[in-house]
Specification:
two-stranded antiparallel ribbon, 3 helices, flat
């Protein structure tokens, strides 16, 4: 990769079919929505 994809539309074409399916399922999951917490101060996602 020359650069890091910054959106799903940039990421999905790079992935193989199984990886893309997993990413789509995770990003559409309500459970994941509730689990993700963005911490702007630390600049990272906490998925715990």
């Amino acid at each position: 990769l020359d650069s890091c994809p910054l959106s799903l539309s940039e990421l999905l074409p790079i992935l193989n079919e199984d990886e893309a399916l997993l990413v789509r399922e995770l990003t559409q999951s309500l459970v994941l929505d509730e689990a993700i917490e963005w911490n702007a101060v630390e600049g990272k996602l906490d998925l715990h």
